[in-house]
Amino acid sequence: MRSLLCRWSAGALTRLIAAGRCTAVAIGVSCAAAATIPATRSTVIVVGGAPGEGEFAADFALQFEAWAKLSTKAGASHLAIGDVLAIGAVPDRERLKQVLKSEEKGGPGELWLILVGHGTFDGNEAKLNLRGPDLSATDLAEWLQPFRRPLAIIDTTSSSAPFLARLAAPGRVIVSATRSGHEQNYARFGKFLAEALPDPKSDLDKDGQVSLLESFLSASHRTAEFYKTEGRLATEHALVDDNGDGLGTPADWFRGVLATKRAKDGAAPDGPRAHQFHLVRSAAEQQLDPAIRARRDALELQLADLRGRKAKLSEEKYFQELEKLLLELAAVYEGT
């Protein structure tokens, strides 16, 4: 299917995508222009680095396949860069740059960017090893700067924490497989994340869908269990950041989907925004008008912020603000 799609003209591919008949496109020499997809729907871009050893190649292939299946199920556009089945003449770094340049910069459609492979960190700059020139955190920060649509950037590679610190910004959810650039051993978090997203067991709040936060928590748990079962010292500790401060929060700070521990400097907790990102939405969620969903999400974020400020407010003030937000939220649901 991928090789056939790459023979279509950009215009033909765009018409297929707009008609909802094409949801998986591998980026090749003649396919780069196919990324002009309306931002009313989600876009998933998976970027894979050079696999190296055979063990890692199988792992990468599993992740590519898992994200492609999830994208199809979600009705999202799926773009694969670096897939071992789709090798083109244009270097992968340049392909990604072209795709991001042609992507819609605004709108409600989420953009999911997943980095798969081996990462490096020289003490100053973190990079994803690609076929050809590598991708640095600085590169990606520059290319993503114009975007105002919801962004989820998931770096599943070793030494990925500097990507989180460099890319964090309001409205974005950033996930890294490591808590430091110096965690340089191969990271297994990405495989467990790809497996957690479609797994109903990852649905911690039992709302019929798995959020990015829930899959992060599940994958972090599975990663820890891997090292425990293998009798190895854990060499990766994933982080999630969705408040824009670039600090990140580890999975063991959460109870359920709420962060119960706080940073010493009083930084706002991470998690509420990541819990609103659902690649595959439940039937009930799909029926919501996008404007109503956006209003609900905004109110839920305000509720999360209020919970974080509770200790600083008088009891009367806290319950006044809580009642106001809950009434507004009830009105949103009554309007559906």
CATH class of the largest domain: Alpha Beta
Which CATH-level-2 architecture of the largest domain? Answer: 3-Layer(aba) Sandwich
Q: Give the overall shape, derived from the CA principal axes.
A: globular
Distance between the termini: 39 Å
Tell me, rounded to a whole number, the average pLDDT.
Answer: 86
Largest sheet: 7 strands, mixed
Characterise the protein shown here.
The chain has a seven-stranded mixed beta sheet, sandwiched between helices. A three-stranded antiparallel beta sheet has the order 5-6-7. It has helices at residues 2-5, 10-18, 54-74, 92-102, 137-144, 161-167, 189-196, 212-230, 283-286, 290-308, 315-334; strands at residues 24-26, 43-48, 77-81, 111-116, 119-121, 126-128, 135-136, 151-155, 172-176, 239-241, 254-255, 258-259. The chain is α/β, with parallel strands linked by helices and 336 residues long. It is globular, with a radius of gyration of 20 Å. The chain folds into two domains: 2-281, Rossmann fold; 288-336. Residues 1-38 have low confidence and may be disordered. Helix 3 packs parallel to helix 7, helix 5 (137-144) runs parallel beside helix 6 and helix 7 crosses helix 8 (212-230).
